[in-house]
Amino acid sequence: MGDLFDADDAAGTAHLGTGLMGGGLPAVHQQAAVVIKAPVGTTLDSIPNPQPPAGDGDLTQEEEATFEACKAGMDNLHNAFWVAGKALETMKAGELHRKSGIPNFADFVWATWEVSESQAQRLMGEWRMGEALAALGWRPRESQVRELVDVAKQSGPKAAVSVYDVVARTGQRVTARALKEVVKRLPPIPRDASAGDVSQIVRSVIQGERSAGETGGSENSPIGESVAENGHSGTGTAESEDIRRLRKALAQLQEAAKSINRPTVQRALSSHPEAAEQLLGEIDQALDKVKRAVRRPSPE
């Protein structure tokens, strides 16, 4: 169904949020009180029917109220994807469709709303990030959050939220393309990384792009700068690149540690001794090389 919950992404993020470092709660959460009727803009009946302007001058009070209701309705379009995602997961987790006559949940969702199984899975995987970003005052598109799914899978949803927050706080327009380009340049982020750590990593990527842009790179940066693929200049950028290399190496070693264990080695030696011995020898050499590289000088 495409970007069912997206407006034109070229419009970017229209609402400036409080961000991780900002104070106070966004207005949408300040208004989270018990109400007697649905808020304006959340139902079709709360939006007046289309009609010609009352005149060429200032809006009348009625037009002002209509304008606010319509803007609220459009805001709900952006909120819809995480509301729908939560609704889907709640129904699936509780098997609330069990008396609907359609035992399979994916079939039930398609028959009721014509939402495919892949899209339903995507929405269920995205709603927590959308909710978290809304709590920070941002109003992300579904297509934007979609670009953060891989980060959430590898490093956790908090890391993904921090990536969006840092990009949004650059002051530039946030688009799915901008997030995609930043995510593509990110080194692996440890799952236990704090929001501050993630912020530093993302900023080093953005600053590296800006520094490269100043040297006349040819590739367009997602934040409006011109950057080279691997261009870096200045001591600070070089240091950031070194830290990125170390983080990437750590992540690769951690992944290797997960995939190899004593039973694996023993089975390999039993079934294919020659190949296993050769591979283990090369692993030993690589580990020795890493140990020599990370050996720090002894304090005097």
Span from first to last CA? 66 Å
Give a quick account of the main beta sheet: strands, pairing sense, barrel closure. 2 strands, antiparallel
- Low-confidence sequence ranges: 11-15, 20-35, 213-238
* Strand-residue proportion: under 5%
Number of helices: 12
Principal-axes shape call: elongated
What's the average pLDDT? 76
Helical residue percent?
55-70%
In total, how many beta strands?
A: 2
Radius of gyration: 25 Å
**What is the structural class?**
mainly alpha
Q: In sequence order, what are the helices and strands, one letter per element?
A: HHHHHHHHHEEHHH
Strand order, largest beta sheet: 1-2
Q: Can you characterise this structure?
A:
The chain has 300 residues and is mainly alpha-helical. It is built from twelve helices and two strands. It has helices at 27-30, 61-94, 105-113, 117-135, 142-146, 149-155, 157-168, 176-185, 195-214, 235-259, 262-271, 273-294; strands at 219-220, 226-227. The radius of gyration is 25 Å and the shape is elongated. Mean pLDDT is 76; it is low at 11-15, 20-35 and 213-238.
Quick overview:
The protein has 300 residues and is mostly helical. The protein contains 12 helices and 2 strands; from the N terminus they run αααααααααββααα. Among the domains are: 77 residues, no CATH class; 114 residues, no CATH class.
What's the layout of helices and strands?
Elements: H1 27-30, H2 61-94, H3 105-113, H4 117-135, H5 142-146, H6 149-155, H7 157-168, H8 176-185, H9 195-214, E1 219-220, E2 226-227, H10 235-259, H11 262-271, H12 273-294
Antiparallel strand pairs: 1-2
Helix pairs in contact: 2-4, 4-7, 6-7, 7-9, 9-10, 11-12
